[in-house]
Amino acid sequence: MTTTKQGRGRGRVRGLVIGVTVAALAGMAPGASAARDEQPTWRDCAGQGGPAGMECAAIEVPVDWAEPGGPKVGLDLARLPATEPAQRIGSVLGVPGGPGGNGIDDLKRAATDLTELRRRFDLVAYKPRTTVWRDQMPPSCMQPGASLFEPQGQKQYKALAAAMARAFDACRRADRTGLFAHMDSLSVARDMDAVREALGEERLSFMANSYGGVAAGAYARLFPQRIRAMYLDGTINQVDGWPEQALRALPVLERVFTRFTTWCADTPACALHGQDAGAVWRELIRDADRRPIPVTSSEFGEGELTGWHLRSFGFIGDPGPNHSRWLAFAEAVAKARGGDGSGFADFALGNARIWAAPGALAMTCGDERGYRGYAQLQKVRRQARKISPNFGGASFDALGCAGWPLPVANPSRPLPARGLPPFLGVGSTWGDYAWTESFTRMIPGSVTVGYDGPGHVMYLSGKKCPVQHATTYLTSLRLPKAGSICPAE
């Protein structure tokens, strides 16, 4: 999910935790796929910004998989053929995050670091339907239905849901692609299987990252027999449900915040040095909930920062180069104590709006990302505040899905008990390891490797140790020892 300019593109890790009838697949047999009379035509496309040897093609899939004879959407494909074709094992399909990420861009970015893997595999990427939507959605779909806030009662929650319902309805009416109602990860998983069929592979290996784990989970549920191997890098575990993921992330964030306060106590350049930085932060968010801080953003205009805005959008766990992000955070806290919230204004107000844009949310609400109602919000909020005094509260992404007008197409539910091979996961112990490990532990024999440092999606960041584990697993189906850790690079 994209965020404002500080988090544009892949977004912050916290942006993931952060939602019943199965309607999209009505009438479809589990193994159904789009009929194609011919295989895709591959052409050289290295001159389009891709590495040498890249080939491109396209396939068409149904907009609505429940109506395979209906309107179609085109999906662009790219591949880097195996460099040792005589030793070729098969294809590895990249499953991008976002949602809305472009897998072809991921392949261009990662190609050099996946040279060893490419010896034995065709590396294949595609542009998911969510990316097609992102590039073609009506401009009105990015008009926020509200500026998100934390409802303090049933009345406020209903008002937020009503505002979002109006925005969703306006976006849906403006949509000319037909995709608005069909971007759930079950639909994406069926697209993935159409790619498999187009490649002529009986089984595929996968590299899924970030939100791509939701599609990977859907694929594992629909097509377990078609998975040769599954590598998950910094993926969310939608199978367990979004509220559980939000709660699972909070203890990790608390530990990282303790790293920050310890660093600040030892660093004279920190604006809160010599003070109890944690106590200062908690006092700030408590006071802001009572008396919101008025701010003006050059991009988003006037607004107010409540404690909820600061808890949701204030702190970033990755300290950045030379601790630049933590230095900026401490300075912003120090200024906000005096009533100047400018250090948080752009990021907080921008995220409160972008996470209420119906066009962005249409890519994710169908995966049961929203609260089922105010009672569930209250329950999860109480649990969150108990777990995390510094960051507990309602999840902004779940609030954005309030008022979603359609049945949830891809509800959280268990994976098959049998038929799946062991998976390999990798995750940052500073962030997404807890999510990824909670996913892999559901599949017998699976292992998740911890990366002992900040970051998100290690193979796209060129981290050598995780890439080596992925290469060994995908090539030989050999997993590392349980408890393996990669040092920070």
From TrEMBL:
It comes from the Bacteria. Residues 399-486 form the Peptidase S33 tripeptidyl aminopeptidase-like C-terminal domain. SUPFAM superfamilies: alpha/beta-Hydrolases (SSF53474). One of its GO terms (molecular function) is hydrolase activity. Residues 1-34 form the signal peptide. The keyword Signal applies. Residues 183-281 form the AB hydrolase-1 domain. Gene3D superfamilies: alpha/beta hydrolase (3.40.50.1820). The keyword S-adenosyl-L-methionine does not apply. InterPro entries: AB_hydrolase_1 (IPR000073), AB_hydrolase_fold (IPR029058), Pept_S33_TAP-like_C (IPR013595). Keywords: Hydrolase, Signal. It holds the Pfam family Abhydrolase_4. This is Alpha/beta fold hydrolase. It comes from Nonomuraea mesophila.
